Amino acid sequence: MKKIAFIGSSGGNLFKQGGNDIHGMMKEILLQTGAADMEISAVQYILASSSLDTAGPDSSAKLYTWKNGELYLEKEGTLSQINKAAVSIDEQIAEMIRAGEIDGVMFVSAEPDKINHQSFQAAIDTGLPLAGTGGSSVAKVQSMGGKVLSASGTTGTTNRTRAVAFTTAFAKEWNIRYQPVIGNTGAHAAEALQTNIWKRINFRGIMMTSLPAFIAMALCLAISQISVFSSLSDVFDTLVAAIPVVICAIAAKQVSGLDEVGVVAGIVAGVLSVDGGIIGGLVVGIAAGIFSYYISIFCFRHNIPGTTVNIAAGGLGGLAAGLIGMYLISPVTLWLGNLICDAINAAIGINPLLAGALAGVLIWPAIIGGVYHAAILPIVLLEMEEAGFSFLGAIDMTGLVMVSAGITLANVIFPKDKGQAAAALPGFLVNVCFGTFVEASYPFMFSSRIVFAGALLSAGVSGALVGLFDVRGTAYVPSVLAPAMANEGHGVQFLICMLVAATLAFVITSFANLREKGRKSVTSGS
């Protein structure tokens, strides 16, 4: 196993690009070197309290070293004190290099003239390969005769891209098989393969992360209905146009695993293909993430500087996906999105009562079976993109949230056993105050057939009323605000639907609990 020394400082420009987070930086380096069968054996890193462009000799600073396989805070003090202490660590690393205990040196914003001079000189004398960033420090090392495999400025780089670039350079030098680990930082990240990019495509994750943008849009629409705030309708229109860009950026970041670079690629692609709606944003964002990932891998393998890697991955990847989205994908996805919304409206138009009842009954099996977030939530967001509110969003609020609230409230007031009230109360409060956590009712539903059937009945009845009253609403908002965010003129009807769902679920659950409690009393009495 090849042994690596990591030296340098938080630098000037680097401080604002990950240099102030030594723990995050080392996490990325350990992740990549571990994937290449390398290990960190020595560290000398000066972390200043601010950018070295503005820090003075009396500025506070810290010196980090490496002990027992982990980062170690060696000393705290003024910058001048830390610099003096760092020289002795530099001497120790130089001795390790000359003793053959180090095989390569990674460096960021180092100081070859003084603080890191002995390490660099030892590496040059022994012919060790080097990889680093920081324009001035790289140039000095090269002028000293250093064998710098990967050289780049700091601008535009991240902790991840620097770690990948360094490790790729060493792996190529030593003929070690190495696949960059991008987009996975868990315990088994080093085992990740290139094919994992396809496993990172998670529609549910993308949609759930994008949800706050839709809620902001719905809030603007609701407030704009008040005459004093009617001008917010323009804000609503702006948000509607921006939603595909939001989804595209999130999708590109998730799929590429390149953090900020992935976001940039997604924004570039999303702006170009904005006419494709949220389905277009989703598809184009995934494409942007894939392009960015493979462009970055290509660049790393050919020793292209980190700054250029980010520019190519974020700019070219986003541009390529965006142009494809603009001319090929957007027309198709726009048609598909309109088709789905038209199909829902057509079903409601044929028999609104039946459509609402079926949607209410089926939404519980959908969420229990794990289908909701993959199939129903995207449709809710499609409807909201078109009008600012949703038929299925209203079904969610009445059939799931309010039914769950009714079930949990019944277990607070009429619990079957001691302790159930305490367990049910938080679920009730979260459902009412935040419009989520319907899973709080699962234990009570799964332990009683009557409660489960009551949940389906309550959801079906409230769904039928939603269809009958032609209500449209929003999911994932506080229940007390939901009526105000319904389609214009239907706030009272939405409130009625919600109260019916909660009341019916409460009554049925209370009956089931009292019935079960009575049975237990009879059994214990006999």
Description:
With about 525 residues, this protein is an alpha/beta fold. The chain has helices at about 20-35, 80-100, 115-125, 135-145, 160-175, 195-200, 205-225, 230-255, 260-270, 275-300, 305-350, 350-370, 370-385, 390-415, 420-435, 440-445, 450-470, 490-525, and strands at about 1-10, 40-50, 60-65, 70-80, 105-110, 130-135, 145-150. The protein has a seven-stranded mixed beta sheet with strand order 4-3-2-1-5-6-7, sandwiched between helices. Strand 5 (about 105-110), helix 3 and strand 6 (about 130-135) form a beta-alpha-beta unit. Helix 12 packs across helix 14 (about 390-415) and helix 17 (about 450-470) packs antiparallel against helix 18 (about 490-525). The chain is elongated. The termini are far apart. Mean pLDDT is about 90; it is low at about 185-195.
